[in-house]
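WP5 quarterly update. Target: DNA-binding protein. Source organism: Lactococcus hircilactis. Length: 77 aa.
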Amino acid sequence: MEKVTDEIKNVVQRLLDDDENFSGWYIEKELEKIGIKVSRMTISNLRNRKTTLGNTKFETLEGLYHFAKTHENINKE
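Structure tokens (predicted):
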């Protein structure tokens, strides 16, 4: 279980680190289209390390993970 949790956190952290390609606004709007609420403030707080992934709600991590997995091949060329 811990290995799965670490994998989710790693995928989400890579997304958060890629603010050049994925703005908080874009992530929020794309997730909103499929009914997942993650605010730009939450994304900003995670990016600026005001909040840690370990202290983030599971639903938020799940949404960010879903976004990361569905967008992971967009900038690989």
